Amino acid sequence: MTTHTRRYFSCPNGHQGLEHTRETDQPYGGDWSMTDVSGIVETGKDARGYPMYKCIRCSQPVKENEQ
Fold first, then answer.
1. Is 29 left (phi over 0), alpha (psi -120 to 50) or beta?
2. Which residues contact 40 (CB under 8 A, 6 or more apart)?
3. What global pTM score does this model have?
4. In 26, 34, 36, 53, which residue has its Cα 20 to 30 A from 18's Cα atom?
5. Which pLDDT score, from 0 to 100, does residue 62 have?
């Protein structure tokens, strides 16, 4: 079964971004993971190894939206 995870981001100027991850752990199918982003670009990793992003329109750092 494929699991989809979506994380939504905003910059201080109100521009929106999305990180969409798909991953599977199906038996006999091999583990895999794929991440696509839109409206944001990765700028490195934080101390925990998670990607950090900035807005592609204004280059401001983005924050994950509260759910």
1. alpha
2. 9, 17, 18, 19, 53, 54, 55, 56, 62
3. 0.85
4. 26
5. 98
